[in-house]
Amino acid sequence: MKKLHAQYKYLNSGNIFIHYRILIQNSKRPTLVLIHGSTTNHTSWAWIYKKFEEQGYNTLTMDLRGHGKSQYERLKIKFMAEDIEKIIEHEKLKKIVLIGNCLGADIALILNKKLKNIKANYLLNPMAKNTLGNNKFLFFMIRAFNMLMKITPRRKNHKFKDYSNFYKLALYHHYVPLTYWKSLDFHNQIEVAYEVLNTKIDFNIKAKSRFVITTKDSGMISPKKVEKLVKKHEFEPLSMDHLILTRKPKILYDNIMFFLKSC
């Protein structure tokens, strides 16, 4: 099999640099834009984007601002969407398919209001104010931690974490390796979580879309609320937990591929 060589780049987005990975094999085919969720980075998609690339797909992944190797400034969802919009324009991508996980799904929905070259969307667990479940304790803790983080010093540096082999370590439903927690910048993650809790997302989009909600942790996201919001688009409840991307990537890859073949 031919060895593929992706490019790793930085793009200046305002006052910060955004890190991204891109591989274009056939400019006539759409590019799959994979957007990660909070607390992770582009490597959370590694197992999946490598499989897509073996099938001849073009791929683009990035580290959202405040995540991975991208710099920190103003962790607002709308600014994260603007960063990705600039990358897409810079790379002159004509047709794209947005594939977003959690926070990444929220960003994809915002991009649907800004870009005209979106062919389709695969959106996993969009988490916003208008999709929240009934886990009141979790939301109370996020608000409390957000207040605490405002009066505690921010870490100057955090270790970059490679999530590409995380699925090999996640043997049990609630098992998270200690090294995972050590790599997190909690100021950033609580700031993002608080932003998500207070942002309503417009689900009225034109491009063909599939919305997938994992149901083993519906206290975070309400499948019923999402199903009402998506209206004309495909909706699928999936009996998995929220971390399916890094714990069960093959199941998610098969689900996405099934959708892509229908586009």
Question: Helix and strand layout, with pairings?
Answer:
Blueprint: E1 7-13, E2 16-23, E3 31-35, H1 46-54, E4 58-62, H2 77-90, E5 96-101, H3 103-111, E6 118-124, H4 136-149, H5 166-169, H6 178-182, H7 186-197, E7 208-214, H8 223-230, E8 234-238, H9 244-247, H10 249-262
Parallel strand pairs: 3-4, 3-5, 5-6, 6-7, 7-8
Antiparallel strand pairs: 1-2, 2-4
Helix pairs in contact: 1-10, 2-3, 4-7
Concise overview:
The chain has 263 residues and is an alpha/beta fold. It is built from ten helices and eight strands.
Description of the structure:
The structure is a single chain. The protein is an alpha/beta fold. It has a single domain (7-262), classed as Alpha/Beta hydrolase fold, catalytic domain (Rossmann fold), CATH 3.40.50. Helices cover 35% and strands 19% of the residues. It has ten helices and eight strands. The protein has helices at 46-54, 77-90, 103-111, 136-149, 166-169, 178-182, 186-197, 223-230, 244-247, 249-262, and strands at 7-13, 16-23, 31-35, 58-62, 96-101, 118-124, 208-214, 234-238.
- In CATH terms, what is the fold-level topology? Rossmann fold
Give the amount of beta strand, in percent.
15-25%
Global shape = globular
Residue share in helices? 25-40%
- How do the strands line up in the largest sheet? 1-2-4-3-5-6-7-8
User: At the fourth CATH level, what is the homologous superfamily?
Assistant: Alpha/Beta hydrolase fold, catalytic domain
Protein structure class = alpha/beta
Total number of distinct structural domains: 1
Name the poorly predicted regions: 171-175
Distance between the termini: 27 Å
